[in-house]
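Title: [Solved] CxxH/CxxC protein 3D structure

Original question kept below for reference.
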Amino acid sequence: MSMFICDCGGVLLVKSIEEYPARVNSTEKLEYERKCTVECVDCRSVKENQRYD
Ligand SMILES: [Zn+2]
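Solution (posted by the thread starter after getting help):
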């Protein structure tokens, strides 16, 4: 996972991570790209649907 940086230059912290769908088995989890929601520590802007894996 790469570091997330906000447009303002602040660090984006991961707030929540998508759950794997029930149809995804353990092998597919290695390939599946989950999305996450991040929040900037400085300006508090929230960005959804960021790549996590
Ligand atoms: Zn920011």
